[in-house]
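Below is how a single chain appears once it has passed through the pipeline. First comes the sequence as given, then the structure the pipeline wrote out for it. We keep one example in the README because the format questions we get most often are answered faster by looking than by reading.
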Amino acid sequence: MAASKKKTVSKKKAASTTKKSKPKSSIKKRNFGTGGKFSRPVYIVDGCRTPFLKAKGKLGPFAAADYAVASGRALLSRQVFEAGAIDEVIMGCVMPSPDEANIARLLALRLGIGNDVPAWTVQRQCASGLQALDCAALEIANKRADIILAGGVECMSHAPVLYNENMVNWLAALNGAKTLSQRLKVISKIRPGHFKPIISLLRGLTDPVVGLSMGQTAENLAYRFNISRQQMDEYATRSHHRLAAAQDENHLDEIEPMYDIKGNVYEHDDGLRRDSSVEALAKLRPVFDRPFGLVTAGNSAQVTDGAATLILASEKAVVDYDLPVLGQIIDVQWAALEPAQMGLGPVHAITPILKRHKYELDDIDYWEINEAFAAQVLACIAAWQDEDYCKNELGINSIIGELDQTKLNVDGGGVSIGHPVGASGARIVLHLLDVLKRNKSHRGIASLCIGGGQGGAMLIERV
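Resulting structure:
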């Protein structure tokens, strides 16, 4: 039996050697994940969001549920149907507080939608809000629902601060001590290191598999596509200037004001730096790869709090309630890639949609690609023009082309508006619909890169 086993292994090695000796195909086959068209129409009939408030080194004025309720209440207050007509509530959220484990259910109950309406929360890191919309669309397309409240929320300034393992074990020992002498013995073992906290926000923005922060993955892309510091700072400056123009021209009427218990009013995204310039950004030091890196706080998305909610409906609901229609969700795609190249996720999610519908980049009227980092968005644009990347990573024989940046994030993005990770996917879809309406255009794509090496994209059309 031993001889027979060795002989089998030998055959496997021979087969493996023969297989390796075969010439490789010039096109590398890629698995782009899941996605596709819907079996029946899914419409977005309305939506709104809160201001996105920048985290400023302390707890922000509101909890995550407060943002979600503020957005959802304003949205439902202007609908012709009763709250009970909603079949389901789905929200994206990445780092809820201990009292907000299923924040969608909290939202549903606080809005008075009804005890009998199910609600659930999804988590796909930076694209959680987009995932919530996709889940809602699938429920409607599969005839399991007709009206769904969906979106995303994040309160990054309230991200939990945790005890480390030494402190947890020490507290467990203290709790298990039965006598005074046992308690004193445990107390005597406390050390300064026990008090070192775990900042969940920082841990959440670091990939544990490759050991890189999201900023370090952006550095990888800058190096890979030869993106300069000046290019990043120019992009970041443009993001702020575009947001400033959008505010001045009242292009952000999707925002509903919020009020705190002290009577303060929050009406606008407060991360805007109107005086942003390439010269000012050039003075900032690198954050993620000191001292030689290129990615700074100035050309990265801001840590932010906020929420966005939308109402999705079937054709039956649109007709029954005579609902207005902002647009239709046509297609969705999810993709994955090497975690260290995380920022290229939009390239891998958008490309299958383009191929499925036989579109060129110019066939898309407007784009919203979330600005996690200026380097990351610029790398996506560069990848589509890189023959080697298109061939070896996307499995196509020619370049995709050059994306027209005058159609990209026309009112700013994560660098200027902020990036509350659970909410951004919902925000970019909502705002893309507004951009299409304002410009009397037809077709748009919203996309995000996702920590851990993923990408998501949604094709929408204005009806």
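The longest strand covers residues 304-313.

See the next section for the split statistics.
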